[in-house]
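To whoever picks this up:

The nightly regression suite flagged Bifunctional aspartokinase/homoserine dehydrogenase as changed. Nothing in the input moved, so I suspect the structure step. Input below, exactly as stored in the fixture:
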Amino acid sequence: MARCHLHKFGGSSLADADCYRRVAHILLTHGHSDDLVVVSAAGKSTNFLYKLLELSATNQLWQEELQTLISFQQNLIEQLLSNEQARSLRERLSTDQSQLISLLSLSTLNDYQSNQVVSFGERWSARLLAALLRESGVAASDVDARTLLIADEAAVPQIRLQDSRARVQALTEAHPNERLIITGFICANERGDTLLLGRNGSDFSATLIASLADIERVTIWTDVEGVFNADPNKINDAKLLSSLSLAEANRLAHLGSPVLHNRTLQPLFDTKVSLAVRSSYASHTDFTLIAPKSSSASAPVVTNLTSVALFNLELKSNVKQFIALLDEAGLSPLAYWELGQDRVELTVTLENQKQVLALLEANSETLGVNDIKVTTDLGLVALVSADANLYRRGFARLLSRNARPLFNDGMSLVTLVPQSQVNLLTQKVHRRCAGPRKRIGVLLLGVGNIGEAWVELFASAQAALNKELEASVELVGLLSSKKALISDDGIELDGWKSAFESAATPWQYDTLFDELHQLECDEVIALDISASADLTLQYPEFFARGIHVVSANKLAGSGPLPFYLELKQQLDNRRLFWRYNASCGAGLPVQHALNDLHNSGDSIEAVGGIFSGTLCWLFENFDAKKPFSELVLEAKGLGITEPDPRDDLSGRDMQRKLLILAREIGFEIELDDIELKSLVPAELAELSLEQFLARIHELDADMQQQFVTAAEQDKVLRYVASLDNVNGKLKAEVGIQWVDNSHPYANLTPGDNVFVIRSEFYQDNPLIIRGPGAGRLVTAAAVQSDLAHICRDLLQE
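Regenerated output under the current build:
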């Protein structure tokens, strides 16, 4: 039966006697009787051994340092083992000390002898851990990897896989039901000379031996819990990843992960071996599992390198062939950019800088490489995910002009920035792309006709909006005039009506604001689709509590000037947004146009138009063949007017809309500063609806006379709002105007709105915006547009 598990413990996991006991406990509680174990040198032993070599090479005294190292090993033996086991290891340690003295006393050490000196650290660890396990009553043997892993010599030893596989499998067959403690970091050539596997060599030993032994799982026990979506030492809210695909882990390791090393992962490709990264200090906690094959992408990971080498060079050959040459040499660039005019930039680690430069110079004629320039004043920031394309836009928005464009290889997004900007950009990218998705709660104030249309629209737009924003925009509240439903879990859009009917409860403002405060949302946006004056008066409280507002309700924008200015002041005092495009022109982009003109440096001189679909319908259809009053009653029967037609005929609604536009342009005026010429005579204005309808014919004589007189001058009647800024003097009025048949007001589709804007840039040929200015769908669309704008503003860094 094949063995299923290999454990690897690094130096930090074997730093002292307590660490050894912890490791033994892990092996006894998390493993099997036939597990393989790969170990590094204990604590800083390898550093000590290299220091001894340096002292010897420079003819300095090394004896005291050697005694310190031997004493460290002796203390471990004494603290961990009983007399019999301890005596055996002490004897072997004494022999090792004699060998070290002989080696260090040589006038010159060749590479094999130096490697042999360094190898003692791993050999001591394997020997001691095996003895400790035997002391616990289980079968365990230490194994010198130089008897297993045979390699050809190169800059990094190249393992002979076939020979090594045969040796590993022979070993495991010869020791069934026994834990084998194998040295990491070392191997041997065919003559038995010691070779070192280089940086992170013990991790590589572990995955290599696992692949040769057909092990199912490798667990690298270290001093961290696993792989995080950012460096937890730099990002406070970095999260542990539960899983990672091998391809993602490999790219992350290539880009400088502090936990994973690129070479460690190579033996796992084309195998079924999975790799776990766990903390030996907290073996009960969650960990990261790297699967050889994964059908879904993990959460994105943000990483950085504070300094990299950037090569800028002229390249006459094919870029892909050039990159392939670097790949074959094991010097794959972290990222590269084609600049045009035969120039290419590529970035590599500082560790690989000299080797890459040597390769370029050696192949300069073959590759057509000239004018090589190297800089090291930039750092790298990268995001790794199999779904990297999903985060491209969010990442790109954070880049300043001195950042390199995003390099995208499908598995990662990479940029370079000045070293001083690396940490800040890393934090921003993590917050935008890898941190918790920002949750934006939406509160719908008004669940009638337009509210229902908005929910339908939001249901169809939500998925695309969330994807674009890389956030979660959710409906969390519904309010009618009497009942409210607030849910921190979000309200299902498919069944919102039944949920509201069954779960909504009576509400008051104080309890409403308390409930909104309890919501676990990063931001809350209230959509006021009511016509409630009482609700408008609560806007200051909404703003005071950090709640953004979208208004289809006209009453706040056209309220008393001090109230309006107070609201604007609140917006200036903190990062709050209030948009109200739907309050004038429904879905027509009137306020967008005014703001764009202002931002362009234009000066708006006049705004006018027909801002009422009802009044447009009436005057487009009035031809004096039928009394005006009959046309009003017909419109009422069709549902075109308000239940009381005087609400339309008074012109008050157009007056409010003109006030909203005037204030948007920058005029601080009151409603009464706009002259209003109502179509309803004073004697009919205060009557009951029934009395008004009985006397509505009294409108006809004046309307008939105006129509005939205007027609004699080849003009038509229109009910118009107009605002003119003449020599700094404002004239604003709402009432009947006689306009030429060719005027933009004269030929509209009944029910349309039209807005005519004259400015310094648009003088003789004014800007005209026309279309449906009312209706449930266009109003809901305007509200949705404002909501999306606020969401984008909130997510802007």
